[in-house]
Amino acid sequence: MAxxxxxxxxxxxxxxxxxxxxxxxxDLCKISGxxxxxxxxxCDFDLHESCTTYPEILSFYAHPWHKLALADHSASTVGxxxxxxxxxxxxxGFYYKCTPCGFxxxxxxxxxxxxxxxxxxxxxxLMLVPTAGSCSACNKDLMVWTYRCGMCSVNLHYKCxxxxxxxxxxxxDDRVDASKKTQKPALxxxx
Length: 191
Prior knowledge:
Helices cover 2% and strands 43% of the residues. It has one helix at 158-161, and strands spanning 4-7, 10-25, 32-40, 45-48, 57-60, 63-72, 94-98, 103-105, 115-118, 121-130, 145-149, 154-157, 170-171, 188-189. It is elongated, with a radius of gyration of 18 Å.
């Protein structure tokens, strides 16, 4: 972990690794944080340490047709009301986009594992797939991306999987470790 970095989201100045107990607002993800951060005092610019690791260009399994580019929503021309195509939550800060397809993705959602194990359905792994129907946990309609067990016809909203009661699950051994996801419960990789 370097004491100072140059980051493409703030090329004007170097960012200094800082630890303060006060809250801050991350200028990349637009989510608050405390403690360790990279900071530019001159500009009052802060980044979570984890937000500095997102690449400018990303290949993502749920949108294999094109690479996704990291963009700043405040400089966007797509309008104020865009949602992440994975979690269906509004985009506020930086986001990944596919311009030809109109696909949008929160940076932290790019860490979503393809396969997960959930306490809600401990018998089989659940796979992130596009599907329709209703959620097996909350009975609400599914929006597109769902964690699904095809053998048992169990479907879980993205949000229902990553809420209380599902902590301690695990992701497949060849998938992303979701414990690094912002605002999500820790899931541990299977060894």
